[in-house]
Write a structure and sequence with these properties.
The chain is of the alpha+beta class and 191 residues long. The protein is 36% helix and 20% strand. The protein contains 7 helices and 7 strands. It has helices at 8-13, 15-28, 32-36, 43-50, 52-60, 76-95, 120-125; strands at residues 62-64, 70-72, 105-111, 137-140, 144-151, 157-164, 168-173. A 5-stranded antiparallel beta sheet has the order 3-7-6-5-4, with helices on one face. Helix 2 packs across helix 6. The radius of gyration is 18 Å and the shape is globular.
Amino acid sequence: MMTINACLDCNRSFSLDEEYFLNVLTILSESPTLKARTELGGSIYKSRLRSDKLYNRLLNSLVNGEDGRTYFRPETERLRKIIEKYAFGLYYWKYKKVAPLNLFKCVGFYPFQVEETRPAEIFILIHNERFQAKKWTHIQEDVFSYIVVRDWSRNNKLTMIFHMHNTAWAVIEIPYPRGKITSNAQLKLFN
């Protein structure tokens, strides 16, 4: 797995949100890998047993729609925070540069199984002019992949797109890499 150095306080400040994020992905997913984690003894099963507060937050995210169906409405701010943290880490991994975390802006989270909400322009971004798929970087096959593209619909802003557990896409505006290369000793999450 990819890792980057981070101070203990920064790393710990995200742990509850990461646990929540993984639980949300599991709820939204049809992935056998993620579903296995909810079974007796799995990591998601254990996290829900360990934390009544987490389990209750997930239950409270279930809302009744006007159509009589039940919908899951996650805490989007918590999802955004983790997606931007992952983009920050991948940015450092790819460019060996650090930019302030506030320059990473999650502009979309699109679950696959719920309802098709991914905008057409996102599909276009991941294809070249012959409509052939561009090359993604696969961190772990069928678990996590990403691509960096220029988004013509947002004034050519540099955009990172995640494909997570065959469950959701996330779209994040990221800064253009400029300046000198950053050493591991200089890496701070909140600079």
